[in-house]
Design goal:
Helix content is about 65%, strand content about 0%. By secondary structure, it is an all-alpha fold.
């Protein structure tokens, strides 16, 4: 029998197991390659003005050019009618002043021509007759009473000028009130006839005439003071007193003119306030005074500029007519016939008068419209009236008739914007 237990030396450790037979090495599998780790990308700054998150995180795609979000284009203020609903610069204000008559000629030009023609005829009839009678007394006076009659005639002539001046003040006040209503409604895109304008002015004509009476009283007081001064100096010192009184009257008149011009500018918005806001006369005077605070020279400059433009245009139209008329009279009357000469002079004078009346009517419309536009501009600048006008126009276009008239006083009173605000 054969023992399978391996042999071990006596007293020693058990024998090690037999080694495995040698096997030659074969091909080994190759592990897959490890991809290289990319270094972290450096942090990039966002372009100026780019919103947060416009730079991709590290390791992502490369930075893309930043595109600003689309901006809404500038929208000009609405212009439903005569002017854009924003504070006015000089150009739009002057342009709108001359556009009022062209936009609605029948009620504006017709009323202005009627009033200016009536004032001119009244001035010719009353003042001409009174002044002619007064100077007739000077011609026929006795030598001993000549100085006193001359002084009295000068005083009567000054006072006689007050009659057409008073009518002119009243007519101009009424016309300015009606034209201010036309400007107000035309700004909102409305076009009214003369009947509609007079219906809106109902109840305010009397207070307009009262305002004209106040202006006339102030002018009359100045004229009467100068006339009394000239008359007193003439009676006291004779011919030398008349000369000195005339010089002193001129100086006093110049000082009163400057004072009157200042007061006129400060209160020039009274007719517009009376018609648009329908306040009392005292409240309208205070309102006009406060609206022109800080804008006196602007108001005066615009009114003077309009007056100069109107006067220059009137002279450009009337002077050539008179010049051509006189030349035609000389050529058509070579024999110097007195009757033909007087007839030609009358025709030229009548034609010049008609053209002057038409130019005066147009000038009154432009002057009144400019004053009304100054009133609207000051309310836009100081009170944000343009916002109220835009709200009214948008509501009317949407069919909402519950929005109140934007020109009327607010229920809580006027609250001017603080200094430095958007409407200051």
């Amino acid at each position: 029998m054969t023992d399978p237990t391996p042999w071990a030396p006596p007293g020693g450790a058990p024998a090690e197991p037999a080694a495995a037979p040698f096997t030659p090495p074969g091909p080994q599998p190759v592990p897959p390659p490890v991809p290289p780790v990319a270094p972290p990308a450096p942090q990039q700054a966002a372009p100026f003005g780019a919103p947060p998150g416009s730079v991709p995180p590290p390791g992502g795609p490369g930075p893309q050019p930043w595109t600003p979000p689309p901006q809404q284009g500038w929208t000009p203020p609405p212009k439903p009618g005569l002017i854009p609903l924003r504070p006015l610069t000089l150009g739009p204000l002057l342009g709108a002043s001359f556009q009022v008559m062209r936009r609605n000629p029948r009620p504006t030009f017709g009323l202005s021509l009627l009033l200016s023609g009536g004032v001119s005829v009244l001035a010719l009839l009353i003042s001409g007759v009174i002044i002619a009678l007064a100077w007739q007394r000077v011609v026929t006076a006795a030598p001993g009473d000549a100085d006193a009659i001359l002084s009295g005639s000068l005083a009567i002539s000054f006072i006689a000028m007050l009659i057409p001046a008073g009518v002119a003040f009243g007519a101009f006040a009424v016309l300015q009130g009606v034209i201010s209503l036309e400007v107000a409604r035309g700004t909102l895109g409305e076009k009214l006839r003369l009947r509609g304008l007079l219906r809106m002015a109902r109840g305010r004509i009397g207070v307009l005439i009262g305002w004209a009476a106040i202006l006339l009283g102030a002018v009359a007081a100045a004229f009467i003071l100068i006339a009394i001064m000239m008359f007193g100096l003439g009676v006291a010192f004779g011919a030398g007193g008349v000369l000195f009184g005339g010089l002193l009257g001129f100086l006093v008149g110049a000082a009163m003119f400057v004072l009157g011009a200042w007061l006129f500018v400060k209160t020039s918005l009274v007719p517009s306030v009376l018609m648009m806001e329908r306040l009392t006369l005292r409240a309208a005077i205070i309102r006009s005074w406060r609206l022109t605070d800080g804008y006196f020279w602007r108001t005066l400059g615009i009114q003077l500029l309009v007056a100069v433009i109107i006067g220059t245009a009137t002279n450009i139209v009337t002077q050539p007519i008179a010049l051509v008329g006189f030349l035609f009279i000389g050529l058509a009357n070579p024999m110097d016939d007195l009757g033909a000469y007087l007839t030609g002079m009358a025709i030229v004078y009548l034609l010049t008068l008609i053209v002057s009346l038409i130019a005066s009517a147009i000038g009154l419309i432009v002057q009144s419209a400019a004053t009304a536009l100054i009133y609207l501009d000051l309310r836009m600048r100081k009170e944000g009236l343009d916002v109220e006008l835009v709200r009214f126009v948008e509501a009317r276009q949407a069919g909402d008739a519950s929005v109140p008239d934007p020109y009327l006083p607010r229920s809580g009173g006027y609250v001017p914007s603080p200094a430095g605000g958007p409407w200051s």
